[in-house]
Design brief:
The protein has 296 residues and is an all-alpha fold. The chain is built from ten helices and no strands.
Length: 296
């Protein structure tokens, strides 16, 4: 076994050992019995994979990756067990390609064992993860409803004010007022929508939608209270909106197996397209009514 193979086998062993610990940690902190059983099964499976790679490294000490062992469980506390396990699954897709490329370098008996591991990664783990259930996942759509709507609408409001006034204070306050009214409206719509779904609480759905909306509104308005040049404040606000969109799009792409680039591209196009349209409208209205573009 050459040095290159040793390094590759060690990297595989460390990954599998780390995932064994991660799934074990998730299982130990999981309250739902059915989820706990699935995570324990995944942990045992990863341990078996680790033992295969360790058998190819006689006398070599293998330690788990520190970030994976301690950082990934932190993700679970913030984003939930479903997101965390699917985030790990995304890593497994890369592992499959690596494992297949390594098959020719192994003895026939080892090839058979590795093929079994590949089959585990390709199908069995995916079917197990599909069985995970988590209450917060059912409300992700309401978070998206509040966050995405706020980013598009409030960015549009701010863009409209570029052609009407040079006062960042007026633009910021207007965005907050419009956002507050819209948050109540969106929350009411979410309440009525959730009443048609027996698996969701209308009150919780309305609260999540309204709070998501207002959090986005406040984040987008903040630059207007600290920066006194409209175009600069708008630029910072737009960047914040793009960051929020990217973060939530990534979360959704992992959770629902969607293409991040496509989802983010569509959301960004909608956001910037709305901003351009309202900027044009604001400019036309400002000139038609002879509104001042100076600071107040």
């Amino acid at each position: 076994m050459n040095a290159r193979n040793t390094e590759e086998f060690l990297a595989r062993a460390r990954n599998e050992l780390t995932e064994h610990y991660v799934y074990g940690h998730l299982a130990a902190h999981e309250k739902k019995p059915e989820n706990r059983a699935l995570l324990e099964k995944l942990s045992a499976q990863e341990k078996g994979h680790y033992e295969f790679w360790k058998s190819l490294l006689p006398g070599v000490e293998v330690k788990p990756r520190a970030f994976g062992r301690y950082g990934i469980p932190l993700l679970r506390g913030v984003f939930g067990v479903t997101f965390t396990t699917k985030f790990l699954e995304g890593h497994e897709k890369d592992s499959i390609e690596t494992y297949e490329a390594m098959l020719p370098d192994l003895a026939p008996r080892e090839q058979e064992r590795l093929k079994k591991i590949i089959e585990d990664e390709r199908s069995h783990e995916r079917s197990l993860l599909g069985q995970l259930t988590e209450r917060r996942v059912g409300y992700v759509g309401f978070v998206a409803l509040g966050l995405a709507d706020a980013i598009v609408e409030i960015t549009g409001v701010h863009a409209g004010f570029l052609g009407v006034t040079g006062s960042t204070l007026i633009a910021g306050v207007s965005g907050v007022i419009v956002g507050f009214a819209a948050a109540i409206s969106m929350g009411s719509a979410a309440y009525l929508q959730a009443k048609q779904d027996p698996d969701k609480s209308p009150v919780v759905s309305a609260f999540i939608t309204g709070i998501s909306y207002m959090v986005s509104v406040v984040c987008l308005a903040l630059p207007y209270f600290f920066i006194h040049t409209m175009i600069t404040a708008f630029s910072f606000s737009t960047c914040i909106g793009l960051v929020l969109l990217a973060a939530f799009t990534f979360y959704g792409s992992v959770l629902f197996d969607r293409k991040f680039a496509r989802e983010f591209g569509e959301s960004m196009f909608l956001m910037l397209g709305t901003a351009l349209a309202t900027y044009v409208l604001g400019t036309v209205v400002g000139k038609f009514f002879h509104l001042s573009s100076g600071s107040f």
